[in-house]
Specification:
Elongation Factor Tu (Ef-tu), domain 3, Rossmann fold, 2 domains, 7-stranded antiparallel sheet, 5-stranded parallel sheet, binds flavin-adenine dinucleotide
């Protein structure tokens, strides 16, 4: 993961253990989003926390890939993971819980189909079939405002849209604020549930070659900061969260009122 202060604000899950889940179905939502619904297997042991809950996703590359996973993911566990031979080491990436349907016990994961240089996770999402197995390791939530704060600014590129959508759906109705969500194309807009006092703005990239996150960054830098104390949550391509966090800190926003995370890094 790129730059972040996630570990200082994160609410860890009470139990974290690798859970094996099966692909139930997949659905193309829009030009750049594909939803994979996971369930069965160990799904009864998954505890949904709402907000921007995220997990390590392990995608098998061989039959024995999922049999040697760590039960938490610290530096030591990562070092051990790297010792697994390349022929069986599962692909590891981070994803958000877009939604968890409690009655059906189904977990939706929305994958960005990044067309510049598709990576193994985005490729897997396009090829997976019902019954395919993956493992997840719950990492909890990072949207954790101080208790008296009832105002928020959410800023993300498309990689943060699933998490932002889940935050908006989880917020209490009295929350106020704004969400600026950058998407590759207008067709990628989604119908989101938001508290009445949170204004949602979609920012569709003008040029397909622009680096994701730059348009949301310009919009967020131009925004007057709310007078009320607010919790700033900014994720996406690394330049977006690091630059906006610096701007907020310079403007006097306390560091514990900000969660920033580079969800991925643009490589030119
Ligand atoms: C806490 C957390 C939650 C996340 N939640 C989600 C989520 O719910 N949905 C989601 O789609 N992503 C999410 N991400 C981002 C995701 O982990 C990365 O985009 C990841 O790199 C994708 O893996 P890959 O195998 O497809 O590509 P990689 O192999 O990692 O990268 C291959 C190439 O693609 C580029 N690339 C990677 N991601 C993107 C992108 N989004 N757009 C354009 N180019 C890209 C890289 O720069 C690289 O050149 C999250 C990240 C974090 C840290």
């Amino acid at each position: 993961m790129a730059k972040t202060n996630m570990n200082t604000v994160r609410i860890k899950p009470e139990v974290s253990e690798p859970l094996t889940l099966h692909v139930l179905r997949s659905e193309r939502l829009s030009p750049h989003f594909l939803r994979v619904t996971l369930g069965d297997g160990d799904v009864a042991r998954f505890t949904p926390m709402g907000y921007d809950q995220w997990f390590r996703l392990f995608i098998p590359v061989a039959d024995d890939s999922l049999s040697r996973l760590p039960d938490k993911f610290n530096t030591l566990a990562y070092a051990k993971y790297l010792t697994i031979s390349k022929t069986s080491r599962p692909i590891l990436r981070n994803y958000s819980v877009r939604a968890f349907h409690k009655d059906a016990k189904e977990l939706d994961v929305d994958f960005v189909l990044h067309d510049t240089s598709a990576g193994p996770a985005a490729e897997w999402a396009q090829k997976c079939k019902p019954g395919d197995k993956v493992a997840i390791l719950d990492e909890g939530i990072s949207f954790n405002p101080p208790p008296d704060v009832r105002h928020t600014l959410l800023v993300a590129d498309e990689s943060g849209l699933p998490a932002a959508a889940a935050i908006l759906a989880s917020l209490p109705d009295d929350f106020q604020g704004k969400a600026l969500l950058e998407i590759p194309a207008p067709e990628d807009e989604q119908a989101l549930t938001t508290p009445p006092g949170v204004e949602l703005t979609w920012i569709s990239r003008k040029d397909a070659h622009d680096t994701p996150g730059r348009a949301a960054l310009s919009a967020a830098l131009a925004l007057p900061l709310p007078e009320a104390p607010f919790f700033g949550w900014v994720v996406g391509e690394q330049t977006l969260p690091t630059t906006l966090r610096r701007h907020w800190v310079k403007a006097g926003v306390p560091k514990d009122h900000i969660m920033f995370c580079g969800y991925w890094r643009h490589r030119s």
